[in-house]
Write a structure and sequence with these properties.
mainly beta; Hypothetical Protein Tm1070, Chain: A; 2 domains; 5-stranded antiparallel β-sheet; 13% helix
Length: 162
C-alpha cells in the first residue's frame, strides 16, 4: 500500500475511533470498574446556548439525573447545589440527605424559563455510601424548544485543593 493510501487508512481508523468514543464514552476506558464510598462531582449545565451569526440565545430546559447504579446497596445524595456562570450559588436542592435505593433514580428539573444560571451554570453534587459501591451516573439532559437535546456528563472533582 502506498503512502497516501496508508495515511487515508489511519485517518479513517482514528476518525471511527473518535466517533465511537463520542457515542460510547466507556469504549476507551479501562475494563476494571472502580468502586467508591463517595464523590464530589461537577456537572455542566446550559440554561441557554448561543447560536447563529446574530448570537441569539436558545433557551434550554435542564434535568439533572442521579442514577444509583449499584444493584445491592443504597447511596445518599448529600447535596445538589446549583451555581451560575460566575460561580455564585443560586440554590441548594437537598437540605437533607436523600437516600437512593439500589437502582433508584432521582432528578431535578430547571425550566427553560429559568435563565439565571447562564451558559456556564453547573451543579456540584456530593454523594456517599456506607461501603464501596458502583458510582452513580450523574448527568444533565438539556432540551431546546425544537426538541434538540444533548447530555452533559459529570466529572469527579476534589474539593480540598487549597
Amino acid at each position: 500500500m502506498d503512502a497516501p493510501k496508508r495515511l487515508n487508512h489511519w485517518v479513517a481508523i482514528i476518525t471511527l475511533t473518535l466517533l465511537f468514543a463520542n457515542f460510547y464514552p466507556g469504549l476507551l476506558e479501562a475494563a476494571e470498574i472502580a468502586l467508591s464510598q463517595g464523590q464530589t462531582v461537577y456537572v455542566p449545565v446550559y440554561s441557554n446556548v448561543i447560536a447563529g451569526p446574530r448570537e441569539v440565545p436558545i433557551h434550554l430546559s435542564n434535568t439533572l439525573i442521579i442514577r444509583n447504579t449499584d444493584i445491592h446497596n443504597e447511596i445518599q445524595v448529600l447535596a445538589a447545589n446549583y451555581y451560575d456562570t460566575k460561580g455564585i450559588l443560586l440554590k441548594k436542592f437537598y437540605p437533607q440527605p436523600v437516600k437512593l435505593a439500589p437502582l433508584e433514580t432521582v432528578y431535578l428539573y430547571l425550566s427553560d424559563r429559568d435563565q439565571e444560571g447562564g451558559v456556564g451554570a453547573n451543579f456540584i453534587v456530593r454523594w456517599r455510601a456506607a461501603k464501596e459501591v458502583n458510582a452513580p451516573i450523574i448527568e444533565c439532559v438539556m432540551v431546546g424548544s425544537q426538541g434538540r437535546a444533548f447530555v452533559s456528563p459529570s466529572r469527579d472533582i476534589k474539593e480540598d485543593t487549597k
